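does this look right to u?? pyridoxal-5'-phosphate version
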Amino acid sequence: MRQVYLDYSATTPVKEEVVKEMLPYYTELYGNPSSLYGPGLTAKEGLDKARSQVAKLIGAQPKEIFFTSCGTEADNWVLEGVADALKSKGKHIITSRIEHHAVLHTCQYLEKQGFEVTYLEVDNEGFVDPQTLKDAIREDTILVSIMMINNEIGTLEPIKELASVAKERGVLFHTDAVQALGNVPIDVKELGVDFLSISAHKIYGPKGVGALYVKRGSRIANFMHGGAQESKKRAGTENTAGIIGFGKAAELAMENLQSHIEHCSGLRDYFWEQIQENIPDVQLNGSKDKRHPGNLNVSFDYIEGEAILLMLDGNGVSVSTGSACSSKSLAPSHVLEAIGVSITKMNGTVRFTVGDFTTKEDIDYTVDVLKQVVARLRELSPVTGQEGW
Ligand SMILES: *Cc1c(COP(=O)(O)O)cnc(C)c1O
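got this back:
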């Protein structure tokens, strides 16, 4: 049976070139980067190179990149770290209703610590309006955190405009750019952000490595206490091989950015055309144009997304309902809820994400299977064609 992976927003395979760069750091170049003799210095040089490669992909200085254990850690760090550093100035944080749980659950944790959080509404395509942000900023606001690209519906937020609204009021601005990295051009200086979170495994690098961009001079408390790694801000012996892999993946993402965007958006648009031609009663969620190049989030009327997922899996096709983190729970997606998708459509929603290794044949096969799966499930559905849908 053909295997088709259409969940690149959940994670990506590690590219061969990346693995090749990483391997020697496990078996030969295993020195501790903090050690002062030859092998330690070699490992340190590897880290420095990776820091430059990652910095270049987002237009930052290498010194502004702090490696973490994942994107989730970067999000936790920035929210808790700014809260801690600026709590005497104010205790108000602003975010949106559609953030990744790495941000939302950290905000909930901070609420328990006595901070106040405003969750901005979004419109029906998932956009945060800069005016809404402007109205929400108060004297005691210390941080705004709005994601660059939403992981479920793929909406690309107007980060530059949002960051400038925060800046006008002297408030620090963070963006979770985990889904944006390698999928849209990113330049931290041009965007005007103070902090930005990224992760390696969403750009064909290894799992368990992320980074936080901290604009030079920005106030943030240290996250891990211990040794002097990462300029003492994030202690702990570095995941050298993983970081080397992140660096290589970043270099490849930089080189391939335009061709990657064209490849993905071409296949995605073809996929959506084919779905519309072959399957009735479908709806695309999110924005038509300001969107992640590989993302299609589709509601299929009358049926359950989980049933579609399982039947596609039975045919070798991997997709997700909602986001990978919430797909094991039955709670409706907080993102689809925020953009006003009705509960019935929400239940029939599937996220497809294409990537560098997706082919037109993969899409043709998937559409063929999907057509049969949806028809079969609709035959079984007691509500097919009923009022209220
Ligand atoms: C995947 C993801 C994260 C978490 O990154 P990890 O490295 O898996 O912890 C955070 N935010 C967004 C938007 C993501 O898509």
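Residues 70-72, 75, 100, 102, 147, 151, 176, 178-179, 199, 201-202, 210 surround pyridoxal-5'-phosphate (CB under 6 Å). idk if thats expected tbh
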